[in-house]
Specification:
Strand content: 25-35%
Number of domains: 2
Largest sheet: 5 strands, antiparallel
Number of helices: 2
Number of strands: 8
Strand order of the largest sheet: 1-2-3-4-5
Length: 174
Amino acid sequence: MSARAERLLDAIGEVQAARRPGGDARRADHVFAVALLALFLLALLGAVAVGTSVYQRLNERSDAAAEARSPLGVVVNAVRATDAEGSVTRAAGPEGDALVLVERLDTGTYETRFFLADGWLVQQYAVEGSPVSTQGATRLAASGSFSFELDDGLLTVSCDAGTARVALRSGGES
């Protein structure tokens, strides 16, 4: 390379150096900014991971609680829907007493029955007077026990999923 080309390259280098004063300081600032950004992104990813984990655990607990309440919720809602004078009665079921909810409609009298059969809490909707059977009954939940008591307008229903209480506006059993 010629002396003139070398001087030209040196001059270009000097001009570039003059344009960016404190070149090493700017480079250090740039490295610090990149490191700070990387630290922020890592903290953000960690927060998202922890939040996702917490949400999953809460959702699993909520699902388990809803699953445990489900059969009792069906019974409680049916009792509330048929709450009328003399609507709650007792009948003999396949494996103990059956909770019978009587509905008197223009088209006839119908019964919603809850009872234990073959290790399941079942619900049967039938015409009044028909036999209690698992034929056409809906399985609500696996359960080894089912009982209920009516005391001064308070119906207490228990099964393996827990216990639920329903205050009857109508007063109770016929």
